[in-house]
Amino acid sequence: MSTRTAYTGSSRKVILAFDVGTTFSGISYSILDPGQVPEIKGVTRQVKSCHRSLEILLTGVLPLRFPAQENVGGDSKIPTIIYYDQNGTMKAAGAEAIAEGIEDSAEENGWIKAEWFKLHLRPKTQSAAHVTAAIPPLPLGKSAIDVLSDFLRYLYRCARTYIEDTHANGADLWRSVEKNIDFVLTHPNGWEGHQQSQMRRAAVLAGLVPDDAAGQSRITFVTEGEASLHYCIQSGLTTDAMKKGEGVLIVDAGGGTIDISAYGQSQLGNAKVSFEEIAAPQCYFKGSIFVTHAARVFLEQLLHDSKYVEDVDHIKRCFDKTTKLRFRNVNDPQYIKFGSARDKDLKVGIRSGQLKLQGSDVASFFEPSVKCITQAIVDQRNSAPKGISSVFLVGGFAASDWLFSRLKDSLEKSGMSFCRPDSHVNKAVADGAVSFYLDHSVRARVAKFAYGTPCQELYDTSDPEHTKRLNSVFITMSGHKAVRGAFDVILPKDTRVCETEEFRRSYSEQQTTLVGIQDIKVKIECYRGDIANPRWRDTDTKKFSSLCFVNADLSVLCKNLQPLQGPRGKYYTVYYDIILLFGLTELKAQISWVENGVEKRSSAQIVYDPNVELAD
């Protein structure tokens, strides 16, 4: 259970957490008052529509349930949907986008629906190639950042409306804190720095924070797996495992991704209970939308020679809203109600507007997700240094009784306790994101990959790796032989990393002019393969991918440099260290150098490559 203490700040502030999911989103918040123990609240009750365009469309103020969706597993959530008109103007979003009559209005006015747009931000790995076939394209002229920024703006308006409507003197309260709001944005375990930079840009475009260093510092990121752990901690779900000294495994099953995270309890010097990752977190594109996509492929084949093949999209939507959620027994036939009593085609199982499917066929739509989660849990358990016997299933997909029962049957046979929080599978990430900000229970994480930088090594005739790369040998400005193509590992894969732990390596730069070394750019790469010590970039080449560039200003260091004489003329050499902090939820960098025997430091800018294609 949470042992949260009173807020020690001198002024009131608000923490807003936005969990933008593939199919549904959530908002949680906490109002921090000096001397008071913070509480976590969710935006879940009746509020007025947050977007005026829909109110005008429906002629009047329509109270919408917020979020406005039933049967999604306990607490309702906000549909992650936006309608745009032909000019790219947002006409409806979230709860408004599923209001009665909205589809007719959209068709009459030529509005364009944007859904599942979060997955357009995904890392472009080969294993995620199947995602492209499943997700709709973005509206013409809109980037993923544009759509995300519009949706974040909508969530912000809804949070404001909810707080103003449900708190005493809510309007005055909001005015007192609107310039002092910290935001927590969640993302799948598989998202990296590039995706975080895109999300930060969307938050700025949405007007959440100013586009400056102070404004952007008010945005914090947390993985959905870690947010879910915090929810389980504050709900008391990890207590038994903690008493046994065992690890716990969190399965966040969402609309797009399945996030698998393993944690164990650690004990700090001040006796505060904290957790640490005990295995590298994993992310798989096997969420609930891929069950729907499998159903669509099946329906296209089944109805290929029927007049109802033109209704596949509509039938798929009906399956998604009803049949998929109700499915519980493989031995019972399943029905998709999509039409009227006059709709009939007995050859394909359509009678009285219902399409009959075998339970085994519906089960096959779920099977890739079931197998993926089961194997991922086994892999995490095998790689963890301590025993794991407790597994918690959260997320919107966890509302599926079929998924839960299949996983429970499989995992309990191997001696694992498998459960899901009662009626709150959908609020775990949003609530947990606020808890992450307030309680900060995870203090160490595990490196998913090997991180390092391309470099060169001084040529050594006794090193066989050097002699077989003679074509890469060159003469440096100082006259030494060196070989290109090496990879200098800064952080090895599977390393346990504490939040304040620094990883640093020493480097040098040679240029013919001072201008050339005043601003340096160091490329940071990931190696995602299985070689324990990836020393050369021409070995297992496809497993190397660009992560980012660390940019640093060395003008202070260069001002007293004297030129050196080399075989090709004068040159300058600068020596520096790159310091990386991997233990936080977002990569940080510094640069250091020695001046008059004293180490000096400066922050370094991390710039992500927007065009990078990641290897598996």
Describe the structure.
With 616 residues, the chain is α+β, with helices and mostly antiparallel strands. The protein folds into 4 domains: 13-223, Nucleotidyltransferase, domain 5, CATH 3.30.420; 232-285 and 371-446, Nucleotidyltransferase, domain 5, CATH 3.30.420; 288-365; 450-608, no CATH class. Helix content is 29%, strand content 30%. The chain has 17 helices and 33 strands. The strands form 7 sheets. Strands 12, 13, 14, 15, 19, 20, 21 and 25 form an 8-stranded mixed beta sheet that branches. Strands 1, 2, 3, 6, 10 and 11 form a 6-stranded mixed beta sheet that branches. Strands 23-24-22-27-28-33 form a 6-stranded antiparallel beta sheet. It is globular, with a radius of gyration of 27 Å. The two termini are 38 Å apart. Mean pLDDT is 88; it is low at 51-75.
List the SSEs and their pairings:
Elements lengths: L12 E7 L4 E9 L8 E2 L4 E2 L3 H6 L5 E2 L13 E2 L1 E4 L5 E4 L8 H8 L2 E4 L13 H6 L9 H23 L3 H8 L3 E7 L5 H13 L7 H4 L2 E5 H11 L4 H6 L2 E7 L4 E10 L5 E5 L4 E3 L3 H15 L9 H15 L7 E4 L12 E2 L2 E4 L1 H25 L4 E7 L6 H12 L4 E3 L8 H12 L2 E5 L3 E9 L5 H4 L5 E3 L5 E11 L4 E3 L4 E9 L3 H4 E9 L16 E10 L1 H4 L5 E3 L2 E13 L6 E8 L2 E6 L1 E4 L8
Parallel strand pairs: 1-10, 10-11, 12-19, 14-21, 19-20
Antiparallel strand pairs: 1-2, 2-3, 2-6, 4-5, 7-8, 7-9, 12-13, 13-14, 13-15, 16-18, 17-18, 21-25, 22-24, 22-27, 23-24, 26-30, 27-28, 28-33, 29-30, 30-31, 31-32
InterPro entries: ATPase_NBD (IPR043129)
Organism: Crucibulum laeve
Protein name: Actin-like ATPase domain-containing protein
